[in-house]
Write a structure and sequence with these properties.
Blueprint: H1 3-27, H2 33-57, H3 71-99, H4 108-135, H5 137-140, H6 148-161, H7 163-172, H8 181-188, H9 199-210, H10 214-217, E1 220-221, E2 227-228, E3 232-238, E4 244-250, H11 254-275, H12 277-282, H13 284-297, H14 301-314, E5 321-322, E6 335-339, E7 343-345, H15 346-350, H16 355-376, E8 378-380, E9 388-391, E10 396-398, E11 404-406, H17 409-422, H18 427-437, H19 446-463, H20 469-480, H21 487-498, H22 500-506, H23 512-527, H24 530-564, H25 577-608, H26 621-650
Parallel strand pairs: 5-10
Antiparallel strand pairs: 1-3, 2-3, 3-4, 4-6, 7-9, 8-11, 9-10
Length: 652
């Protein structure tokens, strides 16, 4: 083959591939130009020899390449062969879209990174499958979280799966509103610790973030961490002005490891929800999505810095409560620098305090936390004893603001009413608050709910002992009646119950029940203070005045229409644009499926039923009709496949 012939064939192939690409992208909108052109070119190059072989076998050409039929027949047959080349290109692209959807890779660099992540995910997935099988969780899944076998197997799996899953298990332990108490207790026992990263890795991370060596940016830096967890480790240091600081450094491989593990968890939750009734009842996919979101947020230290400042603002009226001060000029997405709080764990430090000081700090701690929740609506969402310390100057210090809660004004007022009702044995107002604060099905037997909840509250009041299980028992009653507690409310209640061990470490006879009875009435008074109610009333009056101003004109218009007999009520089906788009898409898909089936069936009929005018010694008119109809049916079926797949992914 000479150079001119090669160039001619190459240009012809590229031109045909470009035409295929244009048509393909009309049928499959997600497909990009590079993918469509590349796949079409490869398919054409591979099928040209097949087309030559088919033309010879069908009697269009002789083995020597001589035309053996009329020009019209050759053109029709050639057009069908080109159409089937296009169909094969379309088929190849659909398969590729199902495996690796368009937009998954943003370019060569992103593609290489995603490919590496894909291999890591596969390796990690196989490792986790082996762990699940070895721990017995695969067998226990059918029993659900109420089973002791499931609980034991899950804890074994988490402990073997590594630090990311331990962190995830600790987050699951915070959802006592959804999970049964035995599982919550088991998950709460998980300990998150890790071997420190090599010093060279930490130095490299700090150089990436600061652009200089740690010793140049800081007055001093201790390369050996004093704490190491699954995602980060914490080092001591000082600034050039002498201030003591702590430097929280994200582990170099943490983000990628969490990303891989979270992807696997989401896939598992989706599969479990399809297969197991308990997972559907629990809403496992939504639960895991929320926990994955919390875990992902903990990787961004800009969020933790913002959280720290927000909670510090809410607690600013309490001088006995201290929070770290962020050093913004040194804090990045993966490094957080803050002032050091010098102190000791509460149980050890409180032994050297007077009873009056212990009593005062216990009351201040609960009151400040409850007020940050119910008055300010911003609170520390992870106040376990490890995040609370007694400082050397006698104050209480709060640590680790990776997770905070935020509650809107109306919900705060209803939550305050609910808490006051719980701790004063008022099941009537407790149920009234639940009805207004939570989503309660109209068919719920409110009398039975009131009685069942009243039994829990009566036992609480008579024992005057409240720990982390008090709200678990309330949540269990609500689950029985299908009442879901919003995540922010559950987080607020969890924060209050997590204070109980610290309160008892300060004063053994002063727990959650006594603290709530002391603090909640005063907080309720603050929420209903005259100046606060006056502001609310002023806002309501303004909006009511505007509505009242518009009322006479609207009333007159309605009366006029009624007098003339022109008053009508219109109810438009599919009035929303999204509804019309959905209906049009549904009709399109149904018609595509019907026409695809008809075309394929007709193609089979023409292909299998003998007869038809002969075109060549081998080819008949029926064969040509079968080829054309088969192409139409296959094209419609492939288009429908990718449309359904794309729509499914958009709702996952």
């Amino acid at each position: 083959m000479d150079v001119l012939s090669f160039l001619y064939q190459a240009l012809t192939t590229l031109l045909l591939a470009a035409i295929f690409s244009v048509v393909v992208r009309r049928l499959l909108p997600p497909v990009g130009w590079i993918r469509a052109l590349s796949v079409s070119t490869i398919v054409i190059v591979l099928l040209i020899p097949v087309s030559v072989w088919a033309g010879t076998g069908l009697g269009i050409f002789s083995p020597e390449g001589t035309l053996q039929t009329g020009v019209g027949t050759a053109l029709v047959t050639g057009a069908l062969l080109v159409l089937w080349m296009f169909a094969m290109s379309l088929f190849s692209l659909v398969v590729l879209e199902l495996i690796v959807p368009s937009g998954r890779f943003g370019g060569p660099i992103e593609g290489a990174r995603e490919s590496r992540l894909g291999f890591r995910r596969l390796r990690r997935y196989l490792q986790l499958v082996w762990i699940v099988l070895r721990s017995g969780l695969a067998r226990a899944l059918r029993y659900g979280p109420e089973s002791s076998e499931f609980v034991d197997a899950l804890i074994r799996t988490i402990n073997q799966a590594g630090v990311s899953f331990v962190k995830f298990g600790q987050l699951m332990a915070t959802r006592s509103d959804l999970l049964p108490e035995p599982l919550i207790t088991a998950l709460s026992s998980l300990q998150s610790s890790a071997t420190p990263s090599p010093s060279s890795d930490i130095r490299e991370r700090l150089r990436e973030e600061w652009g200089e060596e740690p010793e140049s940016v800081l007055g001093s830096f201790e390369i050996d961490p004093f704490a190491a967890a699954s995602v980060a480790q914490v080092h001591n240091g000082t600034l050039h002005d002498g201030r003591e600081v702590v430097i929280k450094v994200q582990r170099p491989a943490a983000a990628e490891q969490v990303r891989v593990d979270c992807d696997i968890l989401l896939r598992f939750a989706s599969t479990a929800q399809k297969r197991f009734e308990w997972a559907r009842k629990l809403g496992l996919s939504s639960l895991v999505e929320g926990l994955v979101g919390s875990l992902t947020e903990e990787l961004d230290y800009h969020i933790e810095a913002r959280n720290t400042r927000a909670v510090a603002s809410a607690l600013s009226v309490y001088p006995n409560i201290a929070t770290p001060e962020i050093v913004p000029e040194l804090s990045t997405q993966r490094v957080l620098v803050m002032s050091r709080l010098n102190g000791s764990p509460v149980p050890a430090a409180s032994a050297h305090m007077t009873p009056d000081n212990r009593d005062r700090l216990a009351k201040v701690l609960f009151e400040a936390t409850a007020e940050s929740i119910l008055v300010h609506g911003v609170f520390h969402a992870d106040l376990h004893p490890g995040n609370i310390m007694l400082l050397d100057d006698g104050r209480i210090g709060l640590l680790d603001f990776g997770a905070i809660g935020v509650i809107d004004s109306e919900t705060r007022q209803l939550l305050a009413a609910l808490l006051l009702a719980i701790f004063t044995d008022d099941n009537v107002n407790a149920v009234a608050s639940i009805n207004m604060a939570f989503s309660v099905d109209p068919d719920v037997d409110r009398g039975a709910l009131q009685r069942d909840l009243g039994k829990v509250l009566t036992l609480l009041t008579q024992s005057q002992q409240a720990d982390s299980s008090v709200f678990t028992r309330v949540f269990a009653v609500l689950r029985t009646y299908g009442i879901a507690v919003p995540g922010d409310v559950a987080g607020a209640l969890r924060t209050l119950t997590s204070l109980d061990p610290t309160l008892r470490a300060l004063r053994s006879d002063y727990g959650l029940f006594q603290a709530a009875q002391d603090a909640l009435p005063a907080i309720a008074v603050k929420l209903s203070a005259p100046d606060r109610l006056a502001k609310i009333a002023t806002t309501s009056a303004l909006t009511s005045a505007i509505a009242a101003r518009r009322l006479p004109a609207r009333t007159e218009r309605l009366l006029t229409q009624l007098e003339r007999g022109e008053l009508t009520v219109r109810a438009r089906s599919f009035g929303a644009p999204s509804d019309r788009v959905w209906l049009g898409s549904l009709v399109d898909d149904v018609l595509s499926g019907v026409f695809a089936c008809i075309a394929i069936v007709m193609a089979l009929v023409f292909l299998l039923v003998p007869g038809g005018a002969p075109v060549t010694s081998v080819l008949t008119l029926h064969h040509l009709m079968a080829g054309a109809l088969g192409f139409i049916g296959l094209t419609l079926a492939l288009r429908l496949t990718i449309r359904l797949f794309t729509r499914r992914n958009s709702h996952v």
